[in-house]
Amino acid sequence: MKFVQKEFSCTFEEKKSKFIAFLFPYSMFDEIMAKLRIEHPKARHFVYAYRYLNEFDQIVENSSDDGEPKGTSGKPSLAVMAGAEIINSAVIIVRYFGGIKLGTGGLVRAYGDSVNEVIKIAQFKEYQKLIIKILECEYGELSLLEYLLNQEEINIKSKDFSTNVKLTIELTNEQFEHLNTLLSRNIKVL
Which fold has domain 2-126? Predict the structure, then answer.
């Protein structure tokens, strides 16, 4: 499974109708939908599809035809995302009607193709399930520990400075097992 970390867009034309597909992180859905409705006041349809993982690691998906004939736009867009194993992402396709009716089959193809085109240009990151761990060290060991975490490309979520320093880190199980072999005895895993 994979996801995008920023917005990508691509324009696709079919029989004078213009389909502008925007692929972006799911967390930005409401903000980007509002922005697109302002930027494209003459557009006929704002079709969308999204897939994300909830807190139970279940895939939640939804789509909307936004006035297009039922099942001709949102569902095909969602099917393309599912086929490409894209999660935690959303796509909005802005359609400008070109005066020529495409028919149901034409709409399914056009929306599917527009999502495929934006997927071709998008940059994806591979999804990995992350766990949270807390490391505790003395102040004197902090810079060495931070250097090690940086070398292993492990994300530091927060630092808590009290009697000792507590670092909250986010990493995969495999990274944690490897990191455990590299940590000095003075560093505690809480």
Answer: Ribosomal Protein S5; domain 2 (3.30.230)
